[in-house]
Design a protein that fits this description.
This protein is mostly helical. Helices cover 76% and strands 0% of the residues. It has 5 helices and no strands. It has helices spanning 3-20, 40-60, 65-77, 81-128, 133-138.
Length: 139
């Protein structure tokens, strides 16, 4: 590809990108600001799924841990380098398992927080909006 061709392709791509860029707007008919919908039951299901994944992974990832550790100690005591390598693998697995379980817990907690915050926001909106135009005359 010649340099001129490259420059032309870059120029064409920049023109296409600038023609389709929109700030603070969505294309007509696709919704826009104010269309955020939160369903409490869906948030609950997702948070529960993350919690269940954490629990199940915690149990399932631990099946081989005791026997792996025992084997690594036995191999090491027999003078085999593989014992030290297996211990290192065992420790790395435990570290990665903890990281994944912590991530699942973080996700679950975030959904719980989001549900609680959304409920507070709903109460705030419901109590701050006048029930009817008559309300403005009463104040």
């Amino acid at each position: 590809m010649a340099w001129d061709e490259w420059e032309q392709l870059k120029s064409d791509a920049a023109q296409r990108a600038s023609a389709s860029t929109q700030l603070n707007a969505a294309p007509p008919g696709t919704g826009g600001p104010g269309d955020l919908v939160v369903h409490d039951d869906e948030l609950g299901k997702m948070g529960n799924t993350a919690y269940e994944l954490r629990q199940k992974f915690g149990v399932d990832s631990d099946h081989a841990r005791p026997s792996t550790f025992t084997a690594s100690i036995d191999l090491f005591n027999d003078g085999l380098d593989m014992g030290a390598a297996l211990t290192e693998l065992h420790d790395a697995w435990n570290s990665q398992t903890k990281t994944l379980k912590d991530a699942c817990a973080h996700i679950s907690n975030h959904f719980d927080y989001t549900r609680a915050q959304h409920a507070k926001d709903q109460v705030q909106v419901a109590t701050s909006m006048p029930v009817s135009k008559i309300d403005s005359y009463i104040k």
